[in-house]
C-alpha cells in the first residue's frame, strides 16, 4: 500500500509534466490539424535554456536564493522558448499553410531533427547535470517498512502546474485571445471573415504551447537534474499519447491524458518492468487510436466525401 | 537559423507578380534587422553561453557571445540579400516553343532506365580499374552499397507511402526484423544467406500483416503515429530481450556473404582460388554491390509490374479516395494489407542484406531517425516516382557521405571543426527547406499507370490528399 501511494505521488508528478507538453500538441492540432512533431524537441530546448539560465544566475550573477532563481529561470525559459516556437512556426510551418496535408508533418519531422542536432552541436552531446534546486523531503508515513515521501520538488511541480493550468484556462476561456483561438479552431475561414487575424492567432497558439512546454522543461530539469539533446523524443511521443488518450483537440483531455500516462508509466515500472515502461506508453497510444480514436474527451470526427 | 533567409515573405511574393517594383532598401533593412534581432534573442542562452564540465565534473558556464553575434549577422545579411534578390524584376517567361525531339534524344530518353542500370553494373569495375582495389573500396562500399540500400528501402516504402498512400513512420521495424532474422537464423542454425534472405522477407511481411491489420482503420497522421509507436516498440523489445538479441551489445560474428556457398577467403577453396584470380578483399565488396543492385532492381521491377495489375491500381485508387474505392467494391482491408506486407517484405530483404554486409546488428541501427531518413527519401523523390526516389537517395545518402570528405574545412575553421557532426543538422534543415521550396519532391509530375487514350503527365498537386 505504501509503495502504491508513493507510485501515485510520483505518477502525478510525471503526469503533470506530460500534461503541460500535451497541451501544446492538442492546441496546435485543434487549430491547424497538424501533429507538431517538433514539440518534444522544443520541450528539450527549453530545458537547456533553463539549465543555462540557472547556471548564469548562480555562477555569474551569484544569486543564492533558490526560489528567486527558480522564478527567474521559469519566466526566462518561457519567454525564450516562446520566441523559439514563434520563429519555428514562422519559418517552417507558415509557408506550408495550404500545401498538401502531409507537408507540415514532414516539415515538423525535419524541424525536430534540426533542433535536437542543433543543441547537440552547440552545447555538446554529453548529459548535462545541475546541482539539485530543492533537496528536502517530507515523510508522509514513517516507521513502516517503506517510508512514503513527498519531496519539495514534487510539491513545486504540482503547485506550478496547477497555477499555470489555471492561468492558461482563464486565458483560453475568458480573454479575447482565447475566444479568437476557439473561433479559429471551429472554422478558420469564418473567423477570418469576422475580422480575426488568423495568422496572428495561430502564432500565439504556438507561443502559448511553447511557454507551457518550457514550464514542463524547467520542471523536468528541476526533477531529474539532468538533460541531454536526445531527451525530446520520448517525452514528446508520450505527451502526444497523452493528448490522443484525452481526445486530441480537447484541453482538459490533454491534462487528464497526461496524468493517466504518468500514472500508468510509474505503476507499470513499479509493478511490472522498468525496461518496458516505454512500451506501455506506446501500446496505450496504439490501443487508444485503434479502438477509441476520439479519446476520452474528444469529439467524433465525421468524414465526408 | 539560416533558414530565416529562405522564408517567402508576403511582400516578396506579391512584388514578384507585379511588373518591376522599385527595391525598397529601407524596408528590407528593417526586415533584416528584425530577423537579426530575433536571432540574437534565440541565441541568447544557447549560443551565447557554453556549458562544460570542470575537473570535479560540475558544469560551469562561460560566455561565448561571438557565436550569437555571428549568427545574428549571418541571418541579417542573408535576409537582406534574400529580399534584394526576391525584389529583382524577373525576366518574363518566354513562350514555350514546341520542341521536336531528335531521334537520338528520343532513344536515350526512352531507354534512360537501361542506361542507368548499365552504368551501375559497370560502376564497381570502372572504379577498380580507375582507382585500384584499395582506392575504390570506399567508393563502392560507402557510396555504392550504402546508397543502393537506401534506394531499395525507399522503393519498398514507396509501395506503402507513394502508391497506397499510407504514411508509415515505423518502416525501420521491418528493416530490423529482416536484419535480426538473418543474424539469428545464421548464428543459431547456421543457415546460409541465400536461404535466410527469403525467410527474412517472409518474416518481415508477416510482421507487416500483424502490425498492419489493427491500424488500417486509421487515416493520415494517426496511422503515422501508430506505426511510429510500433517501430519504437520493436526497438525497445530488441534492446530488452537480451536472451534472444543480446540487447544493446547486438549480435556480432554473423557469417559473411559467400559466393553461392564459395567463401571469399584467401587460399584453397575460396572465390579467388575457384576462378584462378588473385585474392583481394574487394571481391566480396563488389559481390555485395551486385547483390544489393539485384535486390533493388527486383524491388523496382515488382513495383512497376504490380502497378499494372489490379492490386496496384487498387492501391493508387485507394490513395486518391478511400470512400470512392470502397463504394466501387474494392476490398480496402486486403488492398492495404498487401501494400503493407509487400513494403515490409522488401524492407526485410534490405535488412538481411544489411546484416550480411555489416556482420553485426544492434538496436542502434534501427532508430526512428532511420525511418525518418527513408521517409524523407520517398517524400523528396516525389511520392510514387521510382526515379525520383533513386535520385533522392543518391542526393541524401551520398551528400551526407560527402561531408566526411570535407577535411579541407578543418583548415579554415580549425581542428575542432568536424563536418560530420553537422550531418543530421543539415539533413533536418534540408527536409524543412525542401517542404517549403518544393513540397512535391524532385519529380513533381506523375504519369498515371492507366489512362484513357493518351498518357498525360499531371502535376503532383493534382493528386488528392497529397499522398500522391
UniProtKB/TrEMBL annotation, chain A:
Its main location: membrane. The chain crosses the membrane at residues 12-35, 42-61, 67-88, 100-122, 155-172, 202-223, 243-267, 279-298. The keyword Transcription regulation does not apply. Pfam families: BPD_transp_2 (PF02653). GO terms for cellular component: plasma membrane. It comes from the Bacteria. Belongs to the binding-protein-dependent transport system permease family. LivHM subfamily. It comes from Lichenibacterium minor. It is found in: Cell membrane. This is Branched-chain amino acid ABC transporter permease LivH. Keywords: Amino-acid transport, Cell inner membrane, Cell membrane, Membrane, Transmembrane, Transmembrane helix, Transport. Coiled coil: none annotated. It is a multi-pass membrane protein. The keyword Repressor does not apply. GO terms for biological process: D-alanine transmembrane transport; L-alanine transport; L-isoleucine import across plasma membrane. One of its GO terms (molecular function) is L-phenylalanine transmembrane transporter activity.
Amino acid at each position: 500500500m505504501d509503495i502504491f501511494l508513493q507510485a501515485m505521488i510520483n505518477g502525478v508528478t510525471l503526469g503533470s509534466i506530460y500534461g503541460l507538453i500535451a497541451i501544446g500538441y492538442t492546441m496546435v492540432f485543434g487549430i491547424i490539424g497538424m501533429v507538431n512533431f517538433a514539440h518534444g524537441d522544443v520541450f528539450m530546448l527549453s530545458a537547456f535554456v533553463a539549465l543555462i539560465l540557472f547556471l548564469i544566475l548562480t555562477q555569474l550573477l551569484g544569486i543564492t536564493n533558490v526560489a528567486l532563481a527558480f522564478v527567474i529561470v521559469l519566466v526566462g525559459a518561457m519567454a525564450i522558448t516562446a520566441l523559439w516556437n514563434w520563429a519555428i512556426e514562422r519559418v517552417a510551418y507558415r509557408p506550408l499553410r495550404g500545401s498538401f496535408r502531409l507537408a507540415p508533418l514532414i516539415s515538423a519531422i525535419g524541424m525536430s531533427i534540426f533542433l535536437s542536432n542543433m543543441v547537440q552541436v552547440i552545447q555538446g552531446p554529453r548529459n548535462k547535470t545541475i546541482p539539485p534546486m530543492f533537496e528536502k523531503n517530507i515523510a508522509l508515513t514513517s516507521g513502516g517498512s517503506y517510508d512514503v515521501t513527498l519531496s519539495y520538488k514534487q510539491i513545486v511541480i504540482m503547485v506550478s502546474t496547477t497555477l499555470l493550468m489555471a492561468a492558461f484556462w482563464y486565458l483560453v476561456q475568458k480573454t479575447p485571445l482565447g475566444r479568437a483561438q476557439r473561433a479559429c479552431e471551429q472554422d478558420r475561414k469564418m473567423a477570418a471573415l469576422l475580422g480575426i487575424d488568423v495568422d496572428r492567432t495561430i502564432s500565439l497558439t504556438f507561443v502559448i504551447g511553447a511557454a507551457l512546454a518550457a514550464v514542463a522543461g524547467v520542471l523536468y530539469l528541476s526533477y531529474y537534474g539532468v538533460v541531454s539533446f536526445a531527451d525530446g523524443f520520448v517525452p514528446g511521443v508520450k505527451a502526444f499519447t497523452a493528448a490522443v488518450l484525452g481526445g486530441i483537440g480537447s484541453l482538459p483531455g490533454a491534462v487528464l491524458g497526461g496524468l493517466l500516462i504518468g500514472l500508468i508509466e510509474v505503476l507499470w515500472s513499479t509493478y511490472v518492468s522498468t525496461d518496458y515502461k516505454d512500451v506501455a506508453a506506446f501500446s496505450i497510444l496504439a490501443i487508444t487510436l485503434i479502438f477509441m480514436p476520439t479519446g476520452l474527451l474528444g469529439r467524433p470526427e465525421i468524414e465526408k466525401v | 537559423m539560416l533558414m530565416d533567409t529562405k522564408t517567402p515573405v508576403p511582400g516578396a511574393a506579391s512584388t514578384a507578380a507585379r511588373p518591376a517594383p522599385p527595391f525598397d532598401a529601407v524596408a528590407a533593412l528593417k526586415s533584416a534587422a528584425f530577423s537579426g534581432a530575433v536571432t540574437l534573442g534565440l541565441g541568447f542562452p544557447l549560443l551565447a553561453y557554453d556549458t562544460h564540465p570542470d575537473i570535479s565534473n560540475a558544469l560551469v558556464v562561460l560566455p561565448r557571445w561571438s557565436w550569437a553575434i555571428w549568427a545574428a549577422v549571418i541571418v541579417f545579411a542573408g535576409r537582406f540579400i534574400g529580399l534584394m534578390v526576391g525584389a529583382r524584376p524577373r525576366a518574363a517567361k518566354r513562350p514555350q516553343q514546341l520542341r521536336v525531339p531528335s531521334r537520338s534524344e528520343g532513344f536515350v530518353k526512352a531507354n534512360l532506365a537501361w542506361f542507368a542500370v548499365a552504368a551501375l553494373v559497370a560502376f564497381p569495375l570502372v572504379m577498380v580499374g580507375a582507382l585500384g582495389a584499395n582506392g575504390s573500396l570506399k567508393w563502392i562500399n560507402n557510396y555504392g552499397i550504402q546508397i543502393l540500400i537506401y534506394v531499395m528501402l525507399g522503393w519498398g516504402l514507396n509501395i506503402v507511402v507513394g502508391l497506397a498512400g499510407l504514411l508509415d513512420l515505423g518502416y525501420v521495424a521491418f528493416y530490423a526484423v529482416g536484419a535480426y532474422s538473418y543474424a539469428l537464423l545464421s548464428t543459431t542454425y547456421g543457415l546460409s544467406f541465400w536461404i535466410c534472405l527469403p525467410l527474412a522477407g517472409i518474416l518481415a511481411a508477416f510482421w507487416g500483416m500483424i502490425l498492419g491489420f489493427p491500424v488500417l482503420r486509421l487515416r493520415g497522421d494517426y496511422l503515422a503515429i501508430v506505426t511510429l509507436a510500433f517501430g519504437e516498440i520493436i526497438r525497445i523489445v530488441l534492446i530488452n530481450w537480451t536472451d534472444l538479441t543480446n540487447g544493446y551489445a547486438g549480435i556480432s560474428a554473423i557469417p559473411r556473404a559467400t559466393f553461392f556457398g564459395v567463401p571469399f577467403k584467401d587460399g584453397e577453396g575460396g572465390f579467388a582460388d575457384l576462378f584462378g584470380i588473385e585474392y583481394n578483399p574487394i571481391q566480396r565488396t563488389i559481390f555485395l554491390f551486385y547483390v544489393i543492385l539485384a535486390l533493388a532492381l527486383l524491388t523496382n521491377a515488382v513495383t512497376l509490374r504490380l502497378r499494372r495489375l489490379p492490386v496496384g491500381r487498387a492501391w493508387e485508387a485507394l490513395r486518391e479516395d478511400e470512400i470512392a474505392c470502397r463504394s466501387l467494391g474494392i476490398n480496402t482491408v486486403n488492398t492495404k494489407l498487401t501494400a503493407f506486407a509487400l513494403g515490409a517484405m522488401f524492407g526485410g530483404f534490405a535488412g538481411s542484406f544489411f546484416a550480411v554486409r555489416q556482420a553485426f546488428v544492434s538496436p542502434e541501427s534501427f532508430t526512428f531517425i532511420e525511418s525518418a531518413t527513408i521517409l524523407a527519401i520517398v517524400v523528396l523523390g516525389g511520392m510514387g516516382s521510382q526515379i525520383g526516389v533513386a535520385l533522392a537517395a543518391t542526393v541524401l545518402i551520398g551528400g551526407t557521405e560527402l561531408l566526411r570528405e570535407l577535411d579541407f574545412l578543418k583548415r579554415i575553421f580549425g581542428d575542432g571543426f568536424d563536418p560530420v557532426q553537422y550531418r543530421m543538422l543539415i539533413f533536418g534543415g534540408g527536409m524543412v527547406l525542401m517542404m517549403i521550396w518544393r513540397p512535391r519532391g524532385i519529380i513533381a509530375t506523375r504519369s498515371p499507370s492507366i489512362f484513357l487514350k493518351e498518357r498525360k503527365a499531371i502535376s503532383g498537386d493534382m493528386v488528392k490528399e497529397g499522398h500522391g
